[in-house]
Amino acid sequence: MNNTQDPTTDDMLIETDVTDGMSESLDLTDRDTIVRSRNVNVWYGSDQALHDITMDIPENSVTAMVGPSGCGKSTFLRCINRMNDLIDSARVEGELSIRGKNVYDDDVDPVALRRRVGMVFQKPNPFPKSIYDNVAYGLNIQNIEGDHDEIVERSLKRAALWDEVKDRLDESGLELSGGQQQRLCIARAIAPDPEVILMDEPASALDPVATSQIEDLVEELAEDYTVIIVTHNMQQAARISDKTAVFLTGGELVEFDDTQKIFENPESQRVEDYITGKFG
Ligand SMILES: Nc1ncnc2c1ncn2[C@@H]1O[C@H](COP(=O)(O)OP(=O)(O)OP(=O)(O)O)[C@@H](O)[C@H]1O
């Protein structure tokens, strides 16, 4: 995204200990890998945006992708649900599998894949439809059976929005506040019951209260889903994620480890410099 802040300015609090308030680290050693990336390379035309990205993302956890603008975080996120297919110049090579199945195999239907891998974008983007229809949208277009009223209610509850909207489900989603709209988009993403939820800076357009609600929600969602979140905000990554992937300029994954390790004792000097704001 090009309209985001430069992380080396506001969000990188040089004097602040980013480990303040860090979430309790989960023991992830016994969790299965859900997303496995092996030597993933991405080009836009002749420009290479990602180089040999290799990592194993554990299920039911929050993985943060951090790094300076243009280092390829969003590009990697879009590899996981094949959103890069929609960009004519994009070419992906390597293995990107979900539960052992390469999502780039010829027999994978990208639409079915996106049912398993939901996505929430930086700017809340509800459809110009009722709150109810926004949440039910994926159920209808993907012909998902079941009691839609019940799924809509459950999804809105899961997105911590039900109490605020239960008496106005017929009103337009566009009439909600920015933070409510983003929670509506999260409800829409979880209604088809995906396994993985991709979030591309989901709180960067929101005020601090709405941001805090989204952060709480992300942590709760990881009880049932695998959340992979791009953020420019180091404190946010430290607070809510279990694993952190640090991408640096040139589309390189420099370090991927438990969040606590990345923020307290990274292996790479470049990562330490980036995290402490001495980015060069
Ligand atoms: N649709 C596209 N067409 C051509 N080049 C692109 C496209 N999208 C991204 N790129 C290029 O790929 C590189 C990685 O971009 P990407 O948006 O993935 O980085 P990012 O780390 O998510 O950046 P930001 O933090 O600013 O959102 C950049 O050089 C960018 O200009």
UniProtKB/TrEMBL annotation:
InterPro entries: AAA+_ATPase, ABC_transporter-like_ATP-bd, ABC_transporter-like_CS, P-loop_NTPase, PstB-like. Pfam families: ABC_tran. One of its GO terms (molecular function) is ATP binding. Keywords: ATP-binding, Cell membrane, Membrane, Nucleotide-binding, Transport. The keyword Transport applies. Signal peptide: none annotated. SMART domains: AAA. Residues 35-275 form the ABC transporter domain. This is Phosphate ABC transporter ATP-binding protein PstB. It comes from Haloferax namakaokahaiae.
